[in-house]
């Protein structure tokens, strides 16, 4: 049987795990066994007179001790951090591969296998070399209330930024005050200048209407440029002799005495 062996036409008992054979059985006694010496083991029933030495985990080969072992079990080795076994019996170790920028980790390395890398798909990126990081999705600028400034690649994330509407300045159309042109057939009068409290014109001018035009509605330009914060003033259009003449922003207008009446 598995627990016995034949010796000199006798059936002798094998030594149990953790022991080794000291002497075979005789007509007057059974087999004699003794424990394995230190750092040796015997894992099964045996008739061997020597135990097996524990495995040595060679640090220079990239190995370290995982389990020290005992009289019944062998020692176990594993690769050091950042390494993996080069073969199933793990006699030596190799460095774990780090995935390059533009690639992500599909499966991390373990004690018996290397890292598995995969290219980053559209919409994902990896900007570092890593043995543990997968491809990351691009940042969603919209979810942050921002706009896309620079598109992403398989190596770089997108760049987001703030966006402000651009206001287009509105300007008056026509000749600035006081260079008004009198209507055809109107009597020529003195130059139109800014009035003073004591000035009295010697002649009457044609009645003048002053019409305040609302600023034209213009859509904000699409873009992400600096906002022009200059205020937009309404444009006054002066009708001199029923002919429109534009009033410059910020200038005082002067109407005839007949209009005042």
From TrEMBL:
Residues 248-261 have a biased composition (Basic and acidic residues). SMART domains: TNFR. Residues 220-261 are annotated as: Disordered. The keyword Repeat applies. InterPro entries: TNFR/NGFR_Cys_rich_reg, TNFR_5, TNFRSF5. GO terms for biological process: B cell activation; CD40 signaling pathway; defense response; immune response-regulating cell surface receptor signaling pathway; intracellular calcium ion homeostasis; positive regulation of developmental process; positive regulation of macromolecule biosynthetic process; positive regulation of multicellular organismal process. Disulfide bonds join 99-117. The keyword Nucleotidyltransferase does not apply. It is a single-pass type I membrane protein. TNFR-Cys repeats lie at residues 78-117. Its main location: membrane. GO terms for cellular component: CD40 receptor complex; external side of plasma membrane. One of its GO terms (molecular function) is signaling receptor activity. Residues 78-117 form the TNFR-Cys domain. This is Tumor necrosis factor receptor superfamily member 5. It comes from Gopherus agassizii.
């Amino acid at each position: 049987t598995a627990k016995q062996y034949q010796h000199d036409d006798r059936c002798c008992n094998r030594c149990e795990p953790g022991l080794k054979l000291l002497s075979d059985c005789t007509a007057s006694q059974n087999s004699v066994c003794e424990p394995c010496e230190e750092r040796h083991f015997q894992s099964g029933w045996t008739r061997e007179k020597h135990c097996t030495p524990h495995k040595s985990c060679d640090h220079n080969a990239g190995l370290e001790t995982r389990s020290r072992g005992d009289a019944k079990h062998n020692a176990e080795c594993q690769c050091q951090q950042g390494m993996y076994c080069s073969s199933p019996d793990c006699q030596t170790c190799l460095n774990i591969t780090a995935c390059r920028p533009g690639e992500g980790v599909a499966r991390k390395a373990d004690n018996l296998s290397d890292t598995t890398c995969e290219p980053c798909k559209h919409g994902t990126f990896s900007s570092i070399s890593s043995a543990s990081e997968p491809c990351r999705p691009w940042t969603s600028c919209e979810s942050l209330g921002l706009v896309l400034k620079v598109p992403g690649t398989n190596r770089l994330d997108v760049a987001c930024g703030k966006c402000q509407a651009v206001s287009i300045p509105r300007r008056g159309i026509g000749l600035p005050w006081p260079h008004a042109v009198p209507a055809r057939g109107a009597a020529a009068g003195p130059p139109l200048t800014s009035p003073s409290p004591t000035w009295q014109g010697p002649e009457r001018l044609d009645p003048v209407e002053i019409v305040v035009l609302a600023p034209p509605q213009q859509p904000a330009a699409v873009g992400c440029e600096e906002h022009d914060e200059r205020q937009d003033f309404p444009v006054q259009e002066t009708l001199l002799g029923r002919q429109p003449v534009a009033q410059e922003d910020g200038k005082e207008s002067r109407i005839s005495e007949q209009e005042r009446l």
